[in-house]
Design a protein that fits this description.
The chain has 84 residues and is of the alpha/beta class. It contains 4 helices and 3 strands. The protein has a 3-stranded parallel sheet with strand order 1-2-3, with no helix packed on it. Strand 1, helix 3 and strand 2 form a beta-alpha-beta unit. The chain is globular, with a radius of gyration of 12 Å.
Amino acid sequence: MMDLLVLLYEFQNPRLTAEVLASMRTIRLTNIRMTSLKCFVLSSVLSCTPTSYHLEELDLSSCLLTHDLLQTLWPAFRHTHNLK
């Protein structure tokens, strides 16, 4: 899943990104060691979606998130109903 998010980020095509994410209701990134770059990519990709877009679940369990990484991810959380 992280590879797909990176690919969408690298395309730099917000419309394509929004269309791909529209079909996703859950993003599971469990046990992925989140770096500042990965957090930035996730936040940037989710920012391409319209304000009406909502994930049912964003699973970041066991990702070893620090306070700084959580701050980077904060904009992504507005799209999420259930955050793990």
